Amino acid sequence: MKFMRKAGVGGFASIVVVLALVPVGLWLAGGRYPFELLTHFRPHYLAAAVACLVVLLACRSWRWSAVALAVAALHAWAVMPWWFGGAPGATNGTPLKLLIANVNTHNTRFADVIALVDREQPDVIALMETDGRWLDELGPIAERYPHSIARPRNDNFGIALFSRLPLVEPEVVVLGDLRLPSIATGVLCGGEVVRLLVTHPVPPIRGHHARSRDQQLERAAEWVRQHDGPVILAGDLNATMWSPVYQRTVGDAGLTNARRGFGVLPTWPSRFGPMGIPIDHCLVSGRFAVTDCRVGPDVGSDHRPLVVGLRLKAGAAR
To answer: What is the pTM of this model?
Structure first.
């Protein structure tokens, strides 16, 4: 029994060492692919460190318990702030509600998406992976959201925007070398034009895909910097908040993630629920107060929708 306990302590101690080395290795790698992929799982590293801590405490291995506690604290430092520090919800200002969803080209649960729109009543709906069939099936939404722009595709990179508010100079733009469509538009909100960019770069499953994603996000940040006034960047960005690529994009654009203060809010893959990772985002400029940010229900896609409530505060331009 004593031997088994020592073997168990040794195994969990080894896991703790690996968990301690992950941030160091990522720092030394500078966020380069494929090491960047490891940055997306900081909540999982935290959960593993806490599990090791519990086992080591049960085994009365106090030295390794202390190490596990330190490693858990290291990962908690990256994860826990997402539950705190959000902008206080404003009671004044013009409300603006968004629904952001990667619906999955091969998904056929059109009625579930329509029911979600009926229940949430968003002002603006941004959809990714929309082909011609999706646009046909979403006819009931188009009837109630008269302002729209779409570029359907059959390769998981179609994109569509529906709005009950008037759109100002909507256009389909290309931000990267793969020439995938994004939607750039103004949205007339409370007598002021809110600039909105919806984009969906490729997932970084290979090195050249990662470079294309990075380029598209870099161009998105450039687009944001070109506009004064309230700005929103939204979509399936295929990066989590712990990725250097995401952090560089947010820093260059000068935006804040709407989920700050509301939790990590994993959106992909949907079947993993709280064990997924947050790759669908709504990034907003300082003119907005975030009143609500949450993950929507399963609508048949591999992504969960993101529902965001904002208030456009009066004030000077950015």
So the answer is: 0.94
